[in-house]
Amino acid sequence: MIRNYLLLFFVAILFYSMTGCKKEISEIHLIPAFKGDTTTLNGLARPTEGIYASYSVFMDFSKGIQTRELRNSWDFGVYCGTENRLIINHTMGAAAIALNKTSLASVTGSDTTALETNNTLRVNGTSGNTANVDPVSGDFAAYLSGTVFAEVKADAESSNVYIVNRGTAGDTVDTPNKRWYKMKVYLVDRSYKIDYALINETTPSRFSTVTIAKDDSYNFRFGSFRSNRANFEPARVNWDIQWGWSTYKNTAGNAITVPDFVLINSGGGVQAAQVVFSGTGATTKSYEDYKFEDQTGVTYSAERDAIGTKWRNLDPAAGTSSVYRDRFFLVKDGEGNVYKLRFLSFIPNDGGRRGRPRIEYRLLEPAA
User: Fold this and answer.
1) What is the pTM of this model?
2) Are residues 108 and 143 located together in one domain of the fold?
3) In the predicted structure, residue 18 carries a pLDDT above the cut 50
């Protein structure tokens, strides 16, 4: 009899736990995507910076959240996915080159002499070599496969030393003695180990080492020559676009640094498309009238520069710099939410302020 009671007791507990779980699951509610807003991307650390904005600004449309990080806060980032890659700081115009040497101690300032004379590692728009900077266009796969640093291996002894020019984009004072570094990178389990030093440092005890583990929540984890650890990009699902300075290329194909550049988070599944709605042959609706159903025929791009500088006209000599009023952009995030995005101002000519572009974005929703 007691055994039967115990059996009924445990059956009752099991039934309660199962029905309780069902009730709990049935009450989970998904947080709806943010509907949109008009906001200012604040890239300024000081009011006088203007074009030399110190911050890169990240925008997450579905959460309505803006975050920012100092451009010069990092020097290298390690990829957290299945491939083993290291990137250098595109927001500062960093450049690098591999040497036929494997010992940090054997590399000195003399190894930079020809590089300095020939501007090999100076991203200046006249002789900047795109082979010495990370890819300036293309999708995320092209970005990873085209990095200056070769695929990172586990063999520390045979890993090549690279010379890195940290870059000076937006800096008003160039300090060469703080700009040139030497480094090598190799794998230890699921972590990257980076050894580095100032170019003229030859005493091994004064070399620095940082180990950065992969984290699946991020595209990249970051490090700095000055402070080892660094933060830059938010978690992969927490940003859609990045505004600020970036390495790019001019019409001649030379590597340059460009302000007001917009990158999409292609590593997080973000895609974008440009919509031009006025002018000769325009057949689409304006920003105000554009709806979810109007996407028919739109081709989305996963290219990192799908937006780039297409949103603004920059011609200081003619005094005509301003945002383009004849276009906007569609941004599809990794969750499939689609936002229409337009730039309202970025310079005094259009009522804005350099370093603080103003944008408007709205969620497109299917008709009920």
Assistant:
1) 0.89
2) yes
3) no
